[in-house]
Amino acid sequence: MMNPGGSGSGLNRSNEMKIIPLGDSALVVKWGESISLDTHQQVRQLSDYLQEHPFKGMIEYVPAFASVTIYYDGLELMAEYADLVDREDRDFPYQIATAVVTRIMRQLKDIPVQPARVVEIPVCYGGDLGPDLDVVAKHNGLSTEEVIDIHTSADYLVYMLGFAPGFAYLGGMSERIAAPRRETPRLSIPAGTVGIAGGQTGVYPIDTPGGWQLIGKTPTRLFIPKLMPPTLLMAGDIVRFYPISRKEFDEWEGTKP
Fold first, then answer.
1. For residue 34, what are the β-bridge partners?
2. Are 44 and 112 spatial neighbours (Cβ–Cβ below 8 Å)?
3. Which structural domain, as residue segments, surrounds residue 250?
4. More confident residue, 12 or 256
5. Has residue 6 been placed in a domain?
6. Which of 34, 58, 130, 250 is the most buried (most CB within 10 A)?
7. Whole-structure pTM value
8. 68 and 122, same domain (yes or no)
9. Residue 217 — φ and ψ, nearest 5°?
10. Average pLDDT over residues 158-180
11. Domain end point (choices 77, 108, 139)
């Protein structure tokens, strides 16, 4: 089981960082193309800093597998940070934004990565809530109980959110329960349904079409628009699934507003 939540300042800077423009009001800080724990820690480190110390003119940041996109207000940047660049570059927000972010990256070098937040999610496996649990078991030559045991024994790292509001891309699933997508996607999958596709597992946060193999469902809501933030999970979190009975699931569902 991997341990992606540890702290420490000695990150391995194996992937060279570069900054590239994205239109006229954003830039991308990028660490190569590969998905790795080291790259994720660098993404988290910058994201955590921007969350706590947003610079003047920053609108928002969006972490991904190997990059952080930063959106900014060019006029505010030029008014606040023009002295960071040569005089001939002061009319170009991207050059100023690059200078600001480069200064931040120098400051981050010795700042430790903060311990990950652990989020435990209950899941009722099988039955009408997980109609494809038998499919996953048979595909891997396992019993349904073994699939559940394997699925609940891992720590899953949230690399990023995407696809749908609150949908977490998780790393850490055992290849022992990997299964191909369905040949024919379902037109509607209820929010909270837990699925497997290839070597990935995840939870559908809203009702949506999908082609994953469905193994269970959680009564926990992953996306609540009226809250801030509206998503239960964030990049850098650790997810732990644990099994509950159908009775517990129904009781939990009955307490929702």
1. none
2. no
3. 118-254
4. 256
5. no
6. 130
7. 0.79
8. no
9. -150, 145
10. 93
11. 108
